[in-house]
């Protein structure tokens, strides 16, 4: 028997409410500008030679490593094909909110031609309602991937608006601080550089996968050994496997890395292999933690990971998994299982979430500078004032409302422009 007794009436803004006037979706003006500008919202949009794409000395194991043509560089198979999407929401009082994700022009099409109808004219503070109608209306073609990334960018722009309307940082809207400052580990090519910069740990990519056989495994362990010797016995080290391995290969890797005090092994299997993640966790021969979730979406995906005991900690990307609205649900779910969350990347969008909830103990910061060994903004040239870690800690300014950053529109292009609505 249904408890829904009637269809709900339309949600309308309260009298005199500030409402959404225009929704705009942008990409970076050109691929060259995106690469030269540090990737913007797509950290893989980097020029040839950047470590994050793989190098001649050390490739990066990935789902395409089985194919010789695509093995050496992740850019060869299009890890950066979609590029950045930037959403700007303009309110009737002139304020604007900004959210980002990946998805490029396809995401812009969804935002401008589908989701905008649910947003313009609405109260930006009705975020739960707006998320729900975007989710339900795209269920026939969405649920994961590109569609949820587009929703994420919109959701983050709404939270930015909400903070500016309330004149408070987003973390205060979420419940305030649970930590006075946020510790960071670095994802990088050279963990010794991360240690010298003051980061609290470092993660590096696994070079070789199953198709490289015993020789590839030998090189993997040599790489782990060299890094451990460089940073010393106690500096926390993690390994990113980027969806590249199999159950058997992962178990062998875990056995062989036991002497090197590895903190965790990340995303060792493709994201839909829930049973495989469960098996590896049950049979883990090492003390290394097992992590995943970077490429999972929404509370339903993360509930599968939790129910099937797939991981020791989870790593949603706040700009991909459904935005702040969905990320806080994922955080609440994980807390019920006593599973910590350390979000993937996301910079300011993760920082505010991590400030606000106690089961998010630290942040990831990716060293995207051209030299791979210094600190530069995670979002490249997208914002004027992105906060950066200092000696391994990030502090958010309590006097900056919203997410606390200012969009630079110099390099932006709107591929599906609609006539802007006037406030008059």
Automatic annotation (TrEMBL):
GO molecular-function terms, A-Z: hydro-lyase activity; magnesium ion binding
Classification via InterPro entries: Enolase-like_C_sf, Enolase-like_N, Enolase_C-like, Mandelate_racemase_C, Mandelate_racemase_N_dom, RHMD-like
Domain Mandelate racemase/muconate lactonizing enzyme C-terminal residues, every copy: 189-285
The keyword Nucleus is assigned to this record: no
Keyword annotations: Magnesium, Metal-binding
Gene3D superfamilies, per database record: Enolase-like C-terminal domain, Enolase-like, N-terminal domain
Source lineage: Eukaryota, Metazoa, Spiralia, Gnathifera, Rotifera
Name under which the protein is recorded: Mandelate racemase/muconate lactonizing enzyme C-terminal domain-containing protein
GO terms for biological process, alphabetical: carbohydrate catabolic process
Top-rank taxon, per record: Eukaryota
SUPFAM superfamilies: Enolase C-terminal domain-like, Enolase N-terminal domain-like
Pfam families referenced in this protein's UniProt entry, alphabetically: MR_MLE_C, MR_MLE_N
Co-factor requirement: Mg(2+)
């Amino acid at each position: 028997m249904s408890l829904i007794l009637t269809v709900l009436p339309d949600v309308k803004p309260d009298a005199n409410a500030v409402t959404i006037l225009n929704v705009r979706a942008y990409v970076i003006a050109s691929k060259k500008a995106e690469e030269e500008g540090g990737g913007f919202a797509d950290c893989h949009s980097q020029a040839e030679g950047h470590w994050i794409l793989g190098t001649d000395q050390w490739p990066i194991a990935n789902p395409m490593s089985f194919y010789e043509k695509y093995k050496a560089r992740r850019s060869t198979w299009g890890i950066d094909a979609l590029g950045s999407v930037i959403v700007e929401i303009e309110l009737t009082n002139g304020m604007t909110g900004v959210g980002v994700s990946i998805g490029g022009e396809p995401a812009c099409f969804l935002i401008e031609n589908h989701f905008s109808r649910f947003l313009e004219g609405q109260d930006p503070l009705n975020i739960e309602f707006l998320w729900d109608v975007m989710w339900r209306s795209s269920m026939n073609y969405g649920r994961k991937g590109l569609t949820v990334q587009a929703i994420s960018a919109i959701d983050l722009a709404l939270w930015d608006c909400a903070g500016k309307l309330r004149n408070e940082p987003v973390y205060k809207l979420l419940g305030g601080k649970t930590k006075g400052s946020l510790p960071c580990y670095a994802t990088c090519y050279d963990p010794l550089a991360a240690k010298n910069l003051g980061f609290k740990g470092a993660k590096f990519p696994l070079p070789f996968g199953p198709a490289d056989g015993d020789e590839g495994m030998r090189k993997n362990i040599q790489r782990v050994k060299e890094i451990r010797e460089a940073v010393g016995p106690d500096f926390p080290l993690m390994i990113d496997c980027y969806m590249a391995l199999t159950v058997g290969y992962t178990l062998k890797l875990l056995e062989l890395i036991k002497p090197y005090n590895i903190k965790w092994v990340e995303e060792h299997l493709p994201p839909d292999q829930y049973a495989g993640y469960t098996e590896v966790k049950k049979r883990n021969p090492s003390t290394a933690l097992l992590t995943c979730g970077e490429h999972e979406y929404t509370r339903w995906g993360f509930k599968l990971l939790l129910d099937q005991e797939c991981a020791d900690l989870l790593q949603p990307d706040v700009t991909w998994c459904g935005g702040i609205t969905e990320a806080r649900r994922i955080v609440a779910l994980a807390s019920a299982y006593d599973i910590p969350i350390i979000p993937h990347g996301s910079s300011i969008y993760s920082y505010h979430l991590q400030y606000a909830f106690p089961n998010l103990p630290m942040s990831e910061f990716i060293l995207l500078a051209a030299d791979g060994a210094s600190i530069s903004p995670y979002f490249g040239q997208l914002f004027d004032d992105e906060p950066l870690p200092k000696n391994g800690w990030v502090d958010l300014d309590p006097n900056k409302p919203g997410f606390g950053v200012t969009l630079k529109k110099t390099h932006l292009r709107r591929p599906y422009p609609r006539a802007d609505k006037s406030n008059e």
